[in-house]
Amino acid sequence: MKKAILWFRKDLRLSDNPALNEAARTHQLLPIYIKSNPDRSNIYQTPGEASSFWLQQSLINLNEQMDHRIHVIDGDPDKIITALCLQYQIQYVFCNRTYEPWQDNFDKQLETDLAKKNIAFKQFENSRLLNKKLIPKTKQGNHYKVFTPFYKNYLSSLDHHFQPPVSQPKNINWLTIKIDNLTQANYQPWQKKLLSHWQIGEKAAQNHWLDFLENNLQSYHLSRDYPAKENTSKIAPYLHWGEISAKQLYADLQTVPNSEGKEQFIRSLIWREFNLNLLNDFNCFHFQNWQKKFDHFPWQADRELFNLWKQGKTGYPMVDAGMRELWQTGFMHNRVRMITASFLVKNLLIDWRLGQAWFWNCLLAADIANNSANWQWVAGCGADAAPFFRIFNPVTQAEKFDPTGDYIRNYLPEIAKLPTKYLFKPWQAPKEILEQADIQLGVNYPRPIVDLSLSRQNALNAYQQLSK
Ligand SMILES: Cc1cc2nc3c(=O)[nH]c(=O)nc-3n(C[C@H](O)[C@H](O)[C@H](O)COP(=O)(O)OP(=O)(O)OC[C@H]3O[C@@H](n4cnc5c(N)ncnc54)[C@H](O)[C@@H]3O)c2cc1C
After folding, report:
1. Which stretch of DSSP H or E encloses residue 30?
2. CA 241 to ligand 1 centroid distance, Å
3. Which of 213, 264, 374 should be mutated for ligand 1, with most atoms under 8 A from CB?
4. Closest listed residue to residue 342, CA positions, set 364, 315, 322
Protein backbone atom coordinates (compact mmCIF):
# COMPACT_ATOMS: atom_id res chain seq x y z
CA MET A 1 0.00 0.00 0.00
CA LYS A 2 1.23 3.53 -0.81
CA LYS A 3 1.79 5.90 2.07
CA ALA A 4 0.24 9.33 2.44
CA ILE A 5 0.05 12.18 4.88
CA LEU A 6 -3.46 13.05 5.99
CA TRP A 7 -3.24 16.69 6.98
CA PHE A 8 -6.06 17.73 9.33
CA ARG A 9 -6.89 21.43 9.31
CA LYS A 10 -10.44 22.71 9.94
CA ASP A 11 -11.87 19.20 9.57
CA LEU A 12 -11.28 17.55 12.93
CA ARG A 13 -13.52 14.56 12.27
CA LEU A 14 -13.48 11.11 10.70
CA SER A 15 -16.97 11.11 9.18
CA ASP A 16 -17.81 13.11 6.06
CA ASN A 17 -14.17 13.90 5.60
CA PRO A 18 -13.55 13.79 1.81
CA ALA A 19 -9.74 13.84 2.06
CA LEU A 20 -9.76 10.95 4.53
CA ASN A 21 -12.22 8.95 2.42
CA GLU A 22 -10.22 9.33 -0.73
CA ALA A 23 -6.87 8.74 0.92
CA ALA A 24 -7.97 5.72 2.94
CA ARG A 25 -9.05 3.80 -0.16
CA THR A 26 -5.55 3.24 -1.39
CA HIS A 27 -3.11 4.56 1.18
CA GLN A 28 -1.65 3.96 4.54
CA LEU A 29 -2.05 7.20 6.43
CA LEU A 30 0.15 9.33 8.61
CA PRO A 31 -2.23 11.82 10.28
CA ILE A 32 -0.84 15.23 11.17
CA TYR A 33 -1.96 18.62 12.42
CA ILE A 34 0.34 21.62 11.95
CA LYS A 35 0.17 24.61 14.23
CA SER A 36 1.61 27.41 12.18
CA ASN A 37 1.57 31.16 12.15
CA PRO A 38 3.33 32.35 9.01
CA ASP A 39 2.65 36.03 9.63
CA ARG A 40 2.82 37.02 13.27
CA SER A 41 1.70 40.57 12.54
CA ASN A 42 -1.71 39.27 11.49
CA ILE A 43 -3.69 38.15 14.55
CA TYR A 44 -6.19 36.39 12.32
CA GLN A 45 -3.59 33.83 11.25
CA THR A 46 -3.71 32.35 14.74
CA PRO A 47 -6.86 31.32 16.57
CA GLY A 48 -7.71 33.54 19.55
CA GLU A 49 -7.25 32.25 23.08
CA ALA A 50 -10.69 30.68 23.45
CA SER A 51 -10.63 29.12 20.00
CA SER A 52 -7.09 27.78 20.55
CA PHE A 53 -8.32 26.09 23.68
CA TRP A 54 -11.15 24.46 21.74
CA LEU A 55 -8.68 23.35 19.08
CA GLN A 56 -6.42 21.73 21.66
CA GLN A 57 -9.32 19.83 23.24
CA SER A 58 -10.63 18.81 19.87
CA LEU A 59 -7.23 17.44 18.85
CA ILE A 60 -7.04 15.46 22.08
CA ASN A 61 -10.40 13.90 21.26
CA LEU A 62 -9.52 13.18 17.67
CA ASN A 63 -6.27 11.62 18.79
CA GLU A 64 -8.15 9.29 21.11
CA GLN A 65 -10.42 8.27 18.23
CA MET A 66 -7.29 7.36 16.27
CA ASP A 67 -5.61 5.45 19.05
CA HIS A 68 -3.01 8.18 19.66
CA ARG A 69 -1.56 8.42 16.21
CA ILE A 70 -1.84 12.05 15.27
CA HIS A 71 1.35 14.09 15.03
CA VAL A 72 0.77 17.65 16.21
CA ILE A 73 3.69 19.78 15.12
CA ASP A 74 4.46 23.46 15.44
CA GLY A 75 6.16 25.12 12.50
CA ASP A 76 6.27 25.79 8.79
CA PRO A 77 4.00 23.34 6.88
CA ASP A 78 6.34 23.14 3.89
CA LYS A 79 9.34 22.12 5.99
CA ILE A 80 7.35 19.78 8.23
CA ILE A 81 5.66 17.97 5.36
CA THR A 82 8.89 17.66 3.40
CA ALA A 83 10.73 16.25 6.42
CA LEU A 84 7.96 13.73 7.19
CA CYS A 85 7.77 12.63 3.56
CA LEU A 86 11.49 12.01 3.58
CA GLN A 87 11.44 10.20 6.90
CA TYR A 88 8.57 7.85 6.01
CA GLN A 89 9.05 7.62 2.20
CA ILE A 90 5.73 9.32 1.52
CA GLN A 91 4.70 10.79 -1.83
CA TYR A 92 1.15 12.00 -1.26
CA VAL A 93 -0.46 14.63 0.93
CA PHE A 94 -4.24 14.70 1.32
CA CYS A 95 -6.15 17.55 2.93
CA ASN A 96 -9.40 19.47 2.79
CA ARG A 97 -9.65 23.09 1.76
CA THR A 98 -9.93 25.90 4.26
CA TYR A 99 -11.28 29.35 3.47
CA GLU A 100 -8.99 31.92 5.05
CA PRO A 101 -8.07 34.70 2.59
CA TRP A 102 -4.39 33.73 2.44
CA GLN A 103 -4.90 29.97 2.33
CA ASP A 104 -5.46 29.43 -1.41
CA ASN A 105 -2.24 31.21 -2.38
CA PHE A 106 -0.39 29.44 0.35
CA ASP A 107 -1.69 26.04 -0.76
CA LYS A 108 -0.86 26.74 -4.41
CA GLN A 109 2.71 27.62 -3.46
CA LEU A 110 2.96 24.52 -1.28
CA GLU A 111 1.63 22.34 -4.09
CA THR A 112 4.28 23.74 -6.47
CA ASP A 113 7.07 23.29 -3.93
CA LEU A 114 6.04 19.74 -3.08
CA ALA A 115 5.69 18.83 -6.76
CA LYS A 116 9.38 19.69 -7.21
CA LYS A 117 10.11 17.02 -4.61
CA ASN A 118 7.79 14.51 -6.30
CA ILE A 119 5.17 14.82 -3.60
CA ALA A 120 1.58 15.13 -4.84
CA PHE A 121 -0.74 17.51 -3.01
CA LYS A 122 -4.40 16.47 -3.19
CA GLN A 123 -7.04 18.82 -1.93
CA PHE A 124 -10.79 18.39 -1.42
CA GLU A 125 -13.75 20.64 -0.64
CA ASN A 126 -14.58 20.54 3.01
CA SER A 127 -16.97 22.63 4.95
CA ARG A 128 -19.44 24.10 2.53
CA LEU A 129 -22.89 22.89 1.62
CA LEU A 130 -22.16 23.02 -2.09
CA ASN A 131 -18.91 22.60 -3.93
CA LYS A 132 -17.39 25.82 -5.24
CA LYS A 133 -18.52 25.41 -8.86
CA LEU A 134 -22.16 24.94 -7.87
CA ILE A 135 -22.49 28.10 -5.79
CA PRO A 136 -25.04 30.27 -7.58
CA LYS A 137 -23.83 33.51 -9.14
CA THR A 138 -25.51 36.58 -10.61
CA LYS A 139 -26.25 36.84 -14.35
CA GLN A 140 -22.96 38.73 -14.67
CA GLY A 141 -21.13 35.76 -13.18
CA ASN A 142 -20.31 37.41 -9.84
CA HIS A 143 -21.05 36.34 -6.32
CA TYR A 144 -24.22 37.86 -4.92
CA LYS A 145 -23.69 40.87 -2.67
CA VAL A 146 -27.29 40.91 -1.41
CA PHE A 147 -28.45 38.08 0.77
CA THR A 148 -32.08 37.46 -0.25
CA PRO A 149 -31.55 36.61 -3.95
CA PHE A 150 -28.48 34.60 -2.99
CA TYR A 151 -30.53 32.66 -0.46
CA LYS A 152 -33.30 31.84 -2.94
CA ASN A 153 -30.88 30.67 -5.61
CA TYR A 154 -28.81 28.76 -3.11
CA LEU A 155 -31.86 26.84 -1.95
CA SER A 156 -32.67 25.89 -5.49
CA SER A 157 -29.06 24.81 -6.14
CA LEU A 158 -29.19 22.68 -3.03
CA ASP A 159 -32.35 21.02 -4.30
CA HIS A 160 -30.61 20.05 -7.51
CA HIS A 161 -26.99 19.50 -6.61
CA PHE A 162 -26.61 18.64 -2.94
CA GLN A 163 -24.17 15.76 -2.54
CA PRO A 164 -24.81 13.73 0.60
CA PRO A 165 -22.04 13.44 3.17
CA VAL A 166 -19.73 10.43 3.06
CA SER A 167 -19.51 8.12 6.03
CA GLN A 168 -16.36 7.24 7.88
CA PRO A 169 -14.30 4.66 5.95
CA LYS A 170 -14.67 1.16 7.41
CA ASN A 171 -10.98 0.44 7.22
CA ILE A 172 -8.39 3.04 7.84
CA ASN A 173 -4.87 1.84 7.64
CA TRP A 174 -2.87 4.15 9.89
CA LEU A 175 0.88 4.03 9.78
CA THR A 176 1.49 2.11 12.96
CA ILE A 177 3.25 4.85 14.80
CA LYS A 178 1.83 5.60 18.20
CA ILE A 179 2.91 8.88 19.65
CA ASP A 180 1.94 10.88 22.64
CA ASN A 181 2.55 14.52 21.98
CA LEU A 182 -0.92 15.59 23.06
CA THR A 183 -1.71 15.60 26.72
CA GLN A 184 -4.41 17.08 28.89
CA ALA A 185 -2.94 20.30 30.18
CA ASN A 186 -3.24 21.85 33.60
CA TYR A 187 -6.18 24.06 32.94
CA GLN A 188 -6.38 27.73 33.82
CA PRO A 189 -9.54 28.73 35.74
CA TRP A 190 -11.07 30.35 32.63
CA GLN A 191 -10.46 27.17 30.64
CA LYS A 192 -12.08 25.04 33.34
CA LYS A 193 -15.07 27.35 33.19
CA LEU A 194 -15.34 26.89 29.43
CA LEU A 195 -15.13 23.13 29.82
CA SER A 196 -18.06 23.23 32.24
CA HIS A 197 -20.20 24.66 29.42
CA TRP A 198 -19.11 22.52 26.47
CA GLN A 199 -18.38 18.97 25.41
CA ILE A 200 -15.76 19.05 22.67
CA GLY A 201 -14.93 16.63 19.83
CA GLU A 202 -16.61 14.79 16.97
CA LYS A 203 -18.77 12.51 19.10
CA ALA A 204 -19.88 15.43 21.25
CA ALA A 205 -20.70 17.41 18.09
CA GLN A 206 -22.93 14.59 16.80
CA ASN A 207 -24.75 14.24 20.12
CA HIS A 208 -25.14 17.96 20.54
CA TRP A 209 -26.55 18.28 17.04
CA LEU A 210 -28.99 15.37 17.35
CA ASP A 211 -30.26 16.81 20.62
CA PHE A 212 -30.95 20.16 18.94
CA LEU A 213 -32.63 18.45 16.00
CA GLU A 214 -34.93 16.52 18.27
CA ASN A 215 -35.72 19.15 20.86
CA ASN A 216 -35.21 22.69 19.55
CA LEU A 217 -35.39 22.81 15.77
CA GLN A 218 -39.18 23.01 15.58
CA SER A 219 -39.32 26.18 17.66
CA TYR A 220 -36.07 27.71 16.38
CA HIS A 221 -37.87 30.43 14.40
CA LEU A 222 -39.90 31.47 17.43
CA SER A 223 -37.30 31.52 20.14
CA ARG A 224 -33.96 32.09 18.42
CA ASP A 225 -34.07 35.78 19.32
CA TYR A 226 -34.60 35.23 23.05
CA PRO A 227 -31.26 34.60 24.73
CA ALA A 228 -32.71 33.18 27.95
CA LYS A 229 -34.41 30.37 26.00
CA GLU A 230 -31.06 28.94 24.86
CA ASN A 231 -32.84 27.63 21.82
CA THR A 232 -30.21 28.11 19.13
CA SER A 233 -28.07 25.16 18.08
CA LYS A 234 -24.72 26.36 19.49
CA ILE A 235 -23.23 24.34 16.67
CA ALA A 236 -20.91 27.19 15.59
CA PRO A 237 -17.67 26.05 17.28
CA TYR A 238 -18.15 22.47 16.06
CA LEU A 239 -18.73 23.76 12.54
CA HIS A 240 -15.79 26.11 12.72
CA TRP A 241 -13.33 23.37 13.65
CA GLY A 242 -15.04 20.88 11.39
CA GLU A 243 -16.01 18.40 14.10
CA ILE A 244 -19.25 18.16 12.17
CA SER A 245 -19.74 19.16 8.55
CA ALA A 246 -22.34 21.57 7.21
CA LYS A 247 -23.32 18.84 4.74
CA GLN A 248 -24.03 16.49 7.61
CA LEU A 249 -26.34 19.10 9.15
CA TYR A 250 -28.16 19.65 5.89
CA ALA A 251 -28.53 15.94 5.19
CA ASP A 252 -29.97 15.35 8.67
CA LEU A 253 -32.35 18.26 8.19
CA GLN A 254 -33.73 16.47 5.13
CA THR A 255 -34.83 13.61 7.36
CA VAL A 256 -37.12 15.72 9.57
CA PRO A 257 -40.53 17.13 8.59
CA ASN A 258 -40.66 20.59 7.05
CA SER A 259 -41.36 23.37 9.51
CA GLU A 260 -40.74 27.08 9.92
CA GLY A 261 -38.02 26.24 12.41
CA LYS A 262 -36.24 24.08 9.86
CA GLU A 263 -36.60 26.72 7.15
CA GLN A 264 -35.20 29.41 9.40
CA PHE A 265 -32.30 27.20 10.47
CA ILE A 266 -31.34 26.46 6.86
CA ARG A 267 -31.45 30.20 6.25
CA SER A 268 -28.92 30.64 9.09
CA LEU A 269 -26.63 28.05 7.49
CA ILE A 270 -26.88 29.91 4.20
CA TRP A 271 -25.79 33.16 5.89
CA ARG A 272 -22.58 31.33 6.63
CA GLU A 273 -22.21 30.46 2.94
CA PHE A 274 -22.95 34.05 1.94
CA ASN A 275 -20.24 35.38 4.26
CA LEU A 276 -17.71 32.87 2.94
CA ASN A 277 -18.36 34.24 -0.56
CA LEU A 278 -17.87 37.81 0.62
CA LEU A 279 -14.55 36.84 2.13
CA ASN A 280 -13.60 35.07 -1.06
CA ASP A 281 -14.29 38.24 -3.08
CA PHE A 282 -12.69 40.70 -0.69
CA ASN A 283 -9.76 39.16 1.08
CA CYS A 284 -9.18 42.28 3.21
CA PHE A 285 -12.65 41.86 4.68
CA HIS A 286 -11.26 41.34 8.17
CA PHE A 287 -9.52 44.70 8.30
CA GLN A 288 -10.97 46.96 5.60
CA ASN A 289 -14.42 48.48 5.22
CA TRP A 290 -16.38 46.90 2.41
CA GLN A 291 -17.85 50.36 1.73
CA LYS A 292 -14.91 52.64 1.11
CA LYS A 293 -16.71 55.77 2.33
CA PHE A 294 -16.35 54.42 5.88
CA ASP A 295 -12.58 54.80 5.55
CA HIS A 296 -13.11 58.40 6.66
CA PHE A 297 -15.40 57.67 9.59
CA PRO A 298 -14.33 59.66 12.67
CA TRP A 299 -13.90 56.75 15.11
CA GLN A 300 -13.03 57.69 18.70
CA ALA A 301 -9.98 55.98 20.17
CA ASP A 302 -11.21 55.90 23.77
CA ARG A 303 -9.33 53.07 25.53
CA GLU A 304 -11.19 53.54 28.79
CA LEU A 305 -14.64 53.18 27.24
CA PHE A 306 -13.41 50.22 25.19
CA ASN A 307 -12.14 48.46 28.33
CA LEU A 308 -15.43 49.03 30.14
CA TRP A 309 -17.26 47.51 27.19
CA LYS A 310 -14.93 44.47 27.16
CA GLN A 311 -15.43 43.91 30.88
CA GLY A 312 -19.22 44.28 30.74
CA LYS A 313 -19.21 47.45 32.85
CA THR A 314 -21.12 49.89 30.65
CA GLY A 315 -24.05 50.34 33.02
CA TYR A 316 -26.43 48.97 30.36
CA PRO A 317 -27.44 45.53 31.67
CA MET A 318 -28.17 43.92 28.30
CA VAL A 319 -24.76 44.94 26.97
CA ASP A 320 -22.99 43.92 30.16
CA ALA A 321 -24.76 40.56 30.36
CA GLY A 322 -23.69 39.80 26.78
CA MET A 323 -20.07 40.71 27.39
CA ARG A 324 -20.02 38.57 30.53
CA GLU A 325 -21.61 35.65 28.68
CA LEU A 326 -18.84 35.93 26.10
CA TRP A 327 -16.12 36.01 28.75
CA GLN A 328 -17.54 33.17 30.83
CA THR A 329 -18.70 30.77 28.12
CA GLY A 330 -16.82 31.61 24.90
CA PHE A 331 -20.18 32.23 23.25
CA MET A 332 -22.69 35.05 23.00
CA HIS A 333 -26.23 34.81 21.77
CA ASN A 334 -26.64 36.28 18.27
CA ARG A 335 -29.25 38.89 19.26
CA VAL A 336 -26.98 40.08 22.07
CA ARG A 337 -23.97 40.15 19.72
CA MET A 338 -25.87 42.64 17.60
CA ILE A 339 -26.77 44.74 20.64
CA THR A 340 -23.26 44.77 22.13
CA ALA A 341 -21.63 45.41 18.74
CA SER A 342 -24.02 48.24 17.92
CA PHE A 343 -23.35 49.80 21.32
CA LEU A 344 -19.60 49.74 20.74
CA VAL A 345 -19.68 51.05 17.22
CA LYS A 346 -22.53 53.54 17.41
CA ASN A 347 -22.97 54.66 21.02
CA LEU A 348 -19.25 54.64 21.81
CA LEU A 349 -18.12 55.40 18.23
CA ILE A 350 -15.32 52.85 18.57
CA ASP A 351 -13.95 51.24 15.41
CA TRP A 352 -15.62 47.90 14.61
CA ARG A 353 -12.18 46.33 14.10
CA LEU A 354 -11.44 46.64 17.82
CA GLY A 355 -14.67 44.88 18.70
CA GLN A 356 -13.99 42.25 16.10
CA ALA A 357 -10.53 41.60 17.56
CA TRP A 358 -12.02 41.16 21.05
CA PHE A 359 -14.59 38.70 19.73
CA TRP A 360 -11.79 36.95 17.87
CA ASN A 361 -9.97 36.38 21.12
CA CYS A 362 -12.99 35.37 23.20
CA LEU A 363 -15.28 33.39 20.88
CA LEU A 364 -14.80 29.65 20.68
CA ALA A 365 -16.15 29.83 17.13
CA ALA A 366 -14.24 32.96 16.10
CA ASP A 367 -14.37 32.78 12.35
CA ILE A 368 -12.88 35.25 9.90
CA ALA A 369 -15.80 35.29 7.45
CA ASN A 370 -18.62 35.35 9.99
CA ASN A 371 -16.94 37.68 12.44
CA SER A 372 -15.92 40.22 9.80
CA ALA A 373 -19.20 40.10 7.89
CA ASN A 374 -21.30 40.50 11.00
CA TRP A 375 -19.22 43.30 12.48
CA GLN A 376 -19.37 45.12 9.18
CA TRP A 377 -23.09 44.40 9.00
CA VAL A 378 -23.69 46.01 12.39
CA ALA A 379 -21.34 48.92 11.65
CA GLY A 380 -23.21 49.60 8.42
CA CYS A 381 -20.07 49.39 6.28
CA GLY A 382 -20.54 45.82 5.02
CA ALA A 383 -21.91 44.43 1.75
CA ASP A 384 -25.57 43.85 2.61
CA ALA A 385 -25.34 45.80 5.86
CA ALA A 386 -27.86 47.20 8.32
CA PRO A 387 -28.24 50.90 7.52
CA PHE A 388 -26.04 53.02 9.78
CA PHE A 389 -29.04 54.80 11.31
CA ARG A 390 -30.30 51.48 12.68
CA ILE A 391 -28.96 51.86 16.20
CA PHE A 392 -29.98 49.16 18.65
CA ASN A 393 -31.32 50.59 21.89
CA PRO A 394 -30.04 48.25 24.63
CA VAL A 395 -32.97 49.10 26.91
CA THR A 396 -35.83 48.49 24.49
CA GLN A 397 -34.02 45.47 23.03
CA ALA A 398 -33.77 44.00 26.53
CA GLU A 399 -37.44 44.70 27.24
CA LYS A 400 -38.38 42.95 24.02
CA PHE A 401 -35.99 40.00 23.96
CA ASP A 402 -35.37 39.34 27.64
CA PRO A 403 -38.80 40.31 28.97
CA THR A 404 -38.50 38.30 32.19
CA GLY A 405 -34.91 39.43 32.74
CA ASP A 406 -33.70 35.84 33.17
CA TYR A 407 -30.75 36.28 30.82
CA ILE A 408 -29.58 39.47 32.50
CA ARG A 409 -30.00 38.02 36.00
CA ASN A 410 -27.98 34.98 35.03
CA TYR A 411 -24.93 37.00 34.02
CA LEU A 412 -25.33 40.00 36.32
CA PRO A 413 -26.04 38.55 39.75
CA GLU A 414 -25.19 41.90 41.33
CA ILE A 415 -28.44 43.40 40.01
CA ALA A 416 -30.53 40.21 40.03
CA LYS A 417 -32.73 41.41 42.90
CA LEU A 418 -34.01 44.42 40.98
CA PRO A 419 -37.67 44.20 39.95
CA THR A 420 -37.89 43.48 36.23
CA LYS A 421 -39.35 46.95 35.63
CA TYR A 422 -35.97 48.50 36.54
CA LEU A 423 -33.66 45.66 35.56
CA PHE A 424 -33.06 47.05 32.08
CA LYS A 425 -32.38 50.61 33.34
CA PRO A 426 -31.22 50.52 36.97
CA TRP A 427 -30.37 54.25 36.96
CA GLN A 428 -34.10 54.98 36.82
CA ALA A 429 -34.91 52.91 39.90
CA PRO A 430 -35.94 54.92 43.00
CA LYS A 431 -33.40 55.04 45.82
CA GLU A 432 -35.33 52.67 48.09
CA ILE A 433 -35.72 50.05 45.36
CA LEU A 434 -31.98 50.16 44.74
CA GLU A 435 -31.36 49.79 48.46
CA GLN A 436 -33.71 46.81 48.73
CA ALA A 437 -31.83 45.18 45.84
CA ASP A 438 -28.45 45.86 47.51
CA ILE A 439 -27.32 48.06 44.66
CA GLN A 440 -25.13 51.11 45.00
CA LEU A 441 -24.85 52.63 41.56
CA GLY A 442 -21.29 53.56 40.76
CA VAL A 443 -20.09 51.15 43.45
CA ASN A 444 -21.29 47.61 42.81
CA TYR A 445 -22.91 48.30 39.43
CA PRO A 446 -21.83 51.13 37.10
CA ARG A 447 -23.86 54.13 36.12
CA PRO A 448 -24.34 54.35 32.30
CA ILE A 449 -21.04 55.30 30.68
CA VAL A 450 -22.78 57.33 27.95
CA ASP A 451 -26.17 58.90 27.50
CA LEU A 452 -28.16 56.87 24.97
CA SER A 453 -29.91 59.63 23.08
CA LEU A 454 -26.92 61.96 23.06
CA SER A 455 -24.56 59.25 21.82
CA ARG A 456 -27.11 58.18 19.25
CA GLN A 457 -27.30 61.71 17.93
CA ASN A 458 -23.49 61.97 17.84
CA ALA A 459 -23.35 58.78 15.78
CA LEU A 460 -25.92 60.08 13.33
CA ASN A 461 -24.04 63.38 13.00
CA ALA A 462 -20.77 61.56 12.34
CA TYR A 463 -22.45 59.43 9.71
CA GLN A 464 -24.05 62.43 8.02
CA GLN A 465 -20.64 64.08 7.73
CA LEU A 466 -19.53 60.97 5.90
CA SER A 467 -22.42 60.93 3.44
CA LYS A 468 -21.77 64.53 2.32
C1 LIG B 1 -20.90 40.98 15.85
C2 LIG B 1 -21.09 39.53 15.47
C3 LIG B 1 -19.99 38.69 15.39
C4 LIG B 1 -20.15 37.35 15.01
N5 LIG B 1 -19.04 36.55 14.95
C6 LIG B 1 -19.19 35.25 14.57
C7 LIG B 1 -18.07 34.39 14.52
O8 LIG B 1 -16.93 34.76 14.78
N9 LIG B 1 -18.29 33.09 14.17
C10 LIG B 1 -19.53 32.62 13.85
O11 LIG B 1 -19.67 31.42 13.54
N12 LIG B 1 -20.59 33.43 13.86
C13 LIG B 1 -20.47 34.72 14.22
N14 LIG B 1 -21.58 35.53 14.26
C15 LIG B 1 -22.88 35.03 13.73
C16 LIG B 1 -23.82 34.40 14.74
O17 LIG B 1 -23.96 35.23 15.85
C18 LIG B 1 -23.32 33.03 15.21
O19 LIG B 1 -23.04 32.21 14.10
C20 LIG B 1 -24.37 32.32 16.05
O21 LIG B 1 -24.75 33.13 17.13
C22 LIG B 1 -23.79 31.01 16.55
O23 LIG B 1 -24.69 30.41 17.43
P24 LIG B 1 -25.46 29.09 17.02
O25 LIG B 1 -24.52 28.09 16.50
O26 LIG B 1 -26.33 28.75 18.19
O27 LIG B 1 -26.35 29.65 15.82
P28 LIG B 1 -27.71 29.13 15.21
O29 LIG B 1 -28.68 30.26 15.30
O30 LIG B 1 -28.13 27.84 15.76
O31 LIG B 1 -27.35 29.00 13.66
C32 LIG B 1 -26.74 27.82 13.12
C33 LIG B 1 -25.52 28.19 12.35
O34 LIG B 1 -25.84 29.06 11.26
C35 LIG B 1 -24.79 29.99 11.06
N36 LIG B 1 -25.26 31.34 11.36
C37 LIG B 1 -26.28 31.73 12.15
N38 LIG B 1 -26.39 33.08 12.14
C39 LIG B 1 -25.41 33.54 11.35
C40 LIG B 1 -24.99 34.83 10.94
N41 LIG B 1 -25.61 35.95 11.33
N42 LIG B 1 -23.92 34.93 10.12
C43 LIG B 1 -23.29 33.83 9.68
N44 LIG B 1 -23.64 32.58 10.02
C45 LIG B 1 -24.68 32.44 10.84
C46 LIG B 1 -23.69 29.64 12.05
O47 LIG B 1 -22.78 28.76 11.41
C48 LIG B 1 -24.47 28.94 13.15
O49 LIG B 1 -23.68 28.08 13.93
C50 LIG B 1 -21.44 36.87 14.67
C51 LIG B 1 -22.54 37.73 14.78
C52 LIG B 1 -22.36 39.04 15.17
C53 LIG B 1 -23.57 39.93 15.25
Report:
1. strand 27-35
2. 14
3. 374
4. 322
- pLDDT tens digits for 304-350? 999 999 999 999 999 999 999 999 999 999 999 999 999 999 999 99
Name the burial class of residue 220, with classes exposed (0-12), middle (13-18) and buried (19+) by CB atoms within 10 angstroms of its CB: buried
- Nearest one of 282, 183, 202 to 242, comparing CA atoms: 202
**Cα 46 from Cα 207, distance rounded (Å):** 28
Mutate to test the pocket of ligand 1, among 151, 268, 384 (most ligand atoms within 8 A of CB): 268
Which residue puts its alpha carbon closest to atom 37 of ligand 1? Answer: 268
Nearest Cα to 18, choosing from 90, 125, 147, 107? 125
Tens-place pLDDT, residues 11-40:
999 999 999 999 999 999 999 999 987 666
Query: For ligand 1, what atom is nearest to the CA of residue 212?
Result: 30
- Ligand 1 center to 236 CA (angstroms): 6
Domains annotated for the chain, with CATH where assigned, are: 2-126 (3.40.50.620), 147-164+188-281 (1.25.40.80), 292-467 (1.10.579.10)
pLDDT in tens, 427-468: 999 999 999 999 999 999 999 999 999 999 999 999 988 865
Instruction: From 272, 279, 331, give the residue whose CB has the most ligand 1 atoms within 8 Å, as the site to mutate.
Output: 272
